[in-house]
Design brief:
Blueprint: E1 16-25, E2 29-37, E3 40-44, E4 49-50, H1 52-69, E5 74-79, H2 82-89, H3 99-109, E6 114-119, H4 126-136, E7 143-145, E8 156-158
Helix pairs in contact: 1-3
């Protein structure tokens, strides 16, 4: 009789998964970004004026900065923007106004051993869920998100 044994992997061997999302209200409007990784949320409010596409790009770049802060070498970036994921993976050619984001992305990814960008459903995006909760009730008492203007971990605390 065969027994299936689970492979034992240390945390260091597993890829670091980072969920990213950006948005603005209204569109165009004031942008904000969120990155979720290892049970923490990094929230950057009021990143300037732009469109949802600009905010999604900023969120992807924030995710790379968070990955570097966390010491990631093999990372998986998970976002729900087909536009940004398509440009980052090379499936879509960036329009002129987005070329600087792609250049910054290429510069930041050079520090990692392996980088993958994947599109996920909006309902699976933990960073998007965090942004939606903040937008729905900024003064929410049950979950409090600290503001992280320099992409430091916010943490989520129960009130």
């Amino acid at each position: 009789m065969w027994q299936r044994q689970r492979a034992r992997c240390s945390v260091a061997e597993r890829p670091l998964k980072l969920f990213f999302d950006g948005g603005c209200r209204p569109n165009p409007g004031m942008m904000e970004t969120a990155v979720a990784a290892r049970g923490q949320v990094w929230h950057r409010p009021a990143t300037g004026h732009g469109t949802n596409d600009h905010a999604e790009w900023l969120a992807l770049l924030d995710a790379l900065e968070v990955a570097a802060t966390l010491g990631g070498r093999d990372i998986v970036l998970l976002g729900d923007s087909a536009f940004v994921v398509g440009q980052a993976t090379g499936a879509l050619k960036p329009r002129g106004e987005f070329a600087p984001y792609l250049a910054r992305y290429a510069s930041l990814t050079a520090q990692f051993e392996r980088v993958r960008v994947r599109r996920i459903a909006r309902a699976q995006n933990l960073a998007g869920i965090a942004l939606a909760q903040i937008a729905a009730d900024p003064g929410r008492q049950t979950i409090r998100f600290a503001i992280c203007p320099t992409a430091r971990p916010c943490g989520i605390t129960e009130a």
